[in-house]
């Protein structure tokens, strides 16, 4: 007995995808022994420090450490600045990602390289660069100070700018990838129906790339929350004003290691929460 598909006859018992039958699982590839040892060493290298943090944590004194006013002030400032930096990244980064993904202009590869440069640039160097441009004697900061009386360094706004500088590339890369994966014919169809480019972007493109924007925003927020080098270089370390959680951890290591461990656990918990939130995007099995 056979069934006919197009011009070919397919036997009824032949293997093939069937709506009522699950697809067979591929056999797991055998891992060579020569690769097993370095793989286990790499896993231990990445996991053991985190295990050590959990083992050495002062669990009995943890409530007291985390309820101190200094910790809550640093946590509040970190959450506020990371959220504000993510907002700046969304406002500036989504249009930038659209420009890189949907338009063709001379020097696009150079622009993309410059956008991703903060990913590999040492954060301290980024802080120095921000200081030279936006500082009171910087190229732009001098004009802001003389014309409007705006001083960005060593202020909470400086923390937001430093965090946005290092976090925005994560958002741009994620949104650009989502835009390249989205079918542009939907936008073209909206244009044929009389929608302007802005309306098509707002009503058609944004809903299509919403998961990519969400993932990029979460990554940018997590990166901003953990930023240290650019923040301390450009904004300083003033409690209640520019001292975020990473800076508080750095200072606590010198005078109270148990407090530093407690603060590190908070940041570790946030990182785990970010991974859990992105599990469907990066942690799913194909």
Brief summary of the model shown:
The chain has helices at residues 33-55, 62-66, 69-102, 108-120, 123-134, 141-148, 156-181, 185-192, 197-208, 210-225, 229-234, 245-255, 257-277, 279-282; strands at residues 2-5, 8-11. With 286 residues, it is mainly α.
Outline the structure in words.
This protein has 286 residues and is mostly helical. Helices cover 70% and strands 3% of the residues. It contains 14 helices and two strands. The protein has helices at 33-55, 62-66, 69-102, 108-120, 123-134, 141-148, 156-181, 185-192, 197-208, 210-225, 229-234, 245-255, 257-277, 279-282; strands at residues 2-5, 8-11. It has a two-stranded antiparallel sheet with strand order 1-2. Strand 1 (2-5) and strand 2 (8-11) form a beta hairpin. Helix 4 crosses helix 7 (156-181), helix 7 packs antiparallel against helix 10 (210-225) and helix 10 runs antiparallel to helix 13. The longest helix has 34 residues, at 69-102. It is globular, with a radius of gyration of 25 Å. Mean pLDDT is 82; it is low at 1-10 and 282-286.
- In round numbers, the mean pLDDT is 82
What's the shape? globular
Gyration radius, to the nearest Å?
A: 25 Å
Strand percentage, roughly? Answer: under 5%
């Amino acid at each position: 007995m056979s069934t006919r598909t197009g011009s070919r006859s397919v036997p009824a018992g032949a293997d093939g995808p069937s709506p009522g039958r699950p697809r067979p699982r591929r056999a797991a590839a055998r891992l060579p022994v020569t690769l097993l040892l370095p793989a286990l060493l790499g896993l231990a290298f990445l996991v053991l420090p985190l295990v050590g943090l959990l083992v050495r944590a002062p669990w009995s004194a943890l409530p007291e450490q985390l309820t101190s006013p200094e910790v809550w002030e640093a946590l509040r400032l970190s959450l506020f600045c990371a959220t504000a930096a993510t907002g700046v990244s969304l406002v500036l980064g989504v249009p930038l990602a659209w420009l890189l993904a949907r338009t063709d202009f001379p020097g696009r590869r150079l622009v993309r390289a410059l956008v991703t440069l903060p990913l590999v640039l040492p954060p301290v160097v980024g802080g120095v660069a921000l200081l030279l441009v936006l500082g009171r004697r910087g190229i732009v900061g001098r004009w802001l100070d003389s014309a409007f009386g705006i001083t960005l360094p060593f202020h909470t706004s400086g923390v937001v700018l430093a965090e946005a500088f290092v976090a925005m590339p994560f958002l741009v890369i994620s949104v650009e990838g989502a835009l390249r994966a989205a079918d542009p014919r939907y936008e073209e169809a909206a244009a044929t129906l009389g929608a302007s480019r802005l309306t098509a972007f707002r009503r058609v493109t944004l809903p299509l790339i919403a998961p990519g924007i969400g993932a990029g925003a979460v990554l940018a927020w997590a990166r901003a929350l953990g930023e240290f080098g650019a923040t301390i270089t450009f904004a300083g370390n003033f409690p209640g004003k520019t001292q975020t959680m990473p800076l508080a951890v750095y200072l606590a290591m010198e005078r109270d290691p148990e407090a530093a461990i407690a603060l590190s656990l908070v940041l570790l918990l946030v990182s785990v929460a970010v991974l859990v939130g992105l599990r469907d995007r990066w942690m799913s099995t194909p």
